[in-house]
Structure formats: structure tokens, C-alpha cells
Structure prediction request, 349 residues.
Amino acid sequence: MEAFNVRICVVAACLFLASQATGYTMDDLCKQWSGTGYIGNPSNCRGWGYCKNQQTVKWGTCGDELVFNAQTGSCEYATTTPCSTSAVQTCSAIKSPIYVANLLNCTEYAHCDGQGKIAYGDCGVGGVFSESTTSCKWGPACPQDNICRFMPSNIFVGDPNKCGNYINCINGYGTSTACTESPSIYYNAATGKCQSTNPCTGGNTNSGDSQFTVGQISEEACNTEDFDAAEALTVDGETVDYKYVSDSETCYGYYYCAKAGALGYWNQCPTGTQFNSKLGKCVSPASFVCTHNRCGNVNSKFMAVEGCLSYTICSSGATASCPSTSKYYDEVNNICTNTIPKYTICSST
Ligand SMILES: *[C@@H]1O[C@H](CO)[C@@H](O)[C@H](O)[C@H]1NC(C)=O
Prediction:
């Protein structure tokens, strides 16, 4: 009985953490930005901060009936501007109908009727809502869980989840990107430039196993056998000569191979995705079975074990199970459930 309760608490605690709109503070944001200017406060949509030399040097709150718009860096009327931290707050003030993300549950979206009411819709199993396109997408990464939501538009910042990568923030969104101009393959958040020496000093654990660095060269990776076995790639409908070959050690790393026998250059999938060698693409980890450490390159505390009857606790590598009343672990929604989730990782035995 004791153990049973503990497991429920573990999952409940992780639900709580996962449901935070973001876990970032203004200091976390400023640390990633080499520039100077206003940012939004991730815990209060009326709040703002001012970054300089990678630190929050000033902060404050917009006046009554105003919210801070981080993309424009100004206080704007809540009757026309969504609150970046709460759908409920947006709907209570906004005067025209609008769809916004439910920041407490990325599977859901909220519809404000423009007259103070809120209604929720849902993207279905495995879906996440994207506020920028007001559409549902395949998860698991939540598009809104992005520091760009609180940063000005058209700037470059470091990726807080993957030191050495950068994000180009545009209108509140951006994806983690690696510097590719060899040898300058590391982004330095302090200078806002790519450089050849690694500026990252420990403390960055989300990328999981890190035996590889972006741009690392392998003489073996593109051997004829593996190259021929790799999926042919098409770009704009045309088959291209190069292929991506799995690194065979991580779930998220692959080698770029110009042709069979060429030098392989290691690269990694965007955060939240993993490399499916059968497709030659980075995809949702739940959509295929990777037999290496599935905790790599995802910001998840738990990842399902094939079949979804147990899950891996990513911090320790230990395996745990859901309570017998809801025995399946759904890694996309981070819940224990009594119906087997429809992801490939769950359906295979
Ligand atoms: C999120 O919303 C979906 C759809 O309404 C629901 O099935 C799911 O249980 C919710 N997840 C959490 C963590 O509350």
C-alpha cells in the first residue's frame, strides 16, 4: 500500500511540474540573451523585466487593465492583447473572440468568446495545441513552452535546455538550432555568436547522454552497408544524394553522409524529438521504438518503456510502474491511464 501511494505521488508531482506554463524566471531569460531590452515575466503577464549584460537589472508591472506584450516590449490593453501566462485571464478581459493555448494542459486549447467566457477544446490523444498557428499538432513538445514567448521578436538567444544551441525568436516562437559553420559550432549566449570552443560549463543535463558533439566527425558512420540501409531522402519531391545515418548509440543523434564512404558529421534532432532511422527524420519519440536511452534530448522526467506498462525515471534510469488501476504510462500527456495509448511505443510488445 505504501509503495502504491508513493507511485501516485511521483506521477502527481510530475503532472504539477509539467503543467506549469513554464519553469523560467526572468533571470533565466536574461542569461540567454546578449542584448539589452525588455522581457516578459513568465509568472505574471502584467510583469516585465529589463535585461542587460545577461542580468535582470530592472523590473516592474504594467498598470491596471494592461498586460505586457513581450514581442513588442510594451504594456498593452488587456481588452485586445492576450495574457501570456493565463488563458483564464485572457478570456476574462479580451473583447473579441480568440483561440489561445491552455497553458496548464497543452492537449487543450481555450476559446474566449470576447464577452468574458472561456470554453475548452482538445486536440485528441497525442496532439498539442499551437497558439501561433491556432491548430493542433503532433506532440509531445508543447510549442508554447518556449522562452521566446517572453522575449522580443527578431532576436537570437541561447537554448536554456541545450547549451551551445541557439533560438531565433520570432513572434514568440523559435526552435533550438545548432551552429553549423564548422569549426564554430557552439553558440555563446554571452556574445550572441557561434564559436569553436565550448562555452558550456556543466549543469546542463537535459540533453541526456552527451558522448557526441555537434559536428563531430566519424570515418566509420557512412560505411557502405549502413549508408545503403539508410532511408533515401527527398527534398521538394526530388531524391537527394545525401542520407542521415543513425549514430547507433543515442535516440536523437545521426550522421550526415554526403555519400557512401564519406566522412560522417554528427548532428542532433531538435529538443523533444528523436531520430527515426526508418524515416531518416526527427519525429515524436512516441511514434517509433528506439532501443537506446529514450530519455535523451527530451525535457521529460519520465519516458515510457516499450509496451507502456512501465516507465523510466530519467534522472536515475530506474524503472517504475503505474498503479494497477491505471496501468499504462502515457508519456505524451505524462499520466497513468487505464487504456493503452495509441502510440507506436505502446503498441509493440
Ligand atoms: C489534458 O486535457 C486532455 C483533454 O481534455 C485530458 O484528456 C487530459 O487528461 C489532460 N491532461 C492533464 C495532465 O490534465
In short: The pocket of 2-acetamido-2-deoxy-beta-D-glucopyranose is lined by residues 15, 105, 107-108, 122, 333, 335 (CB under 6 Å).
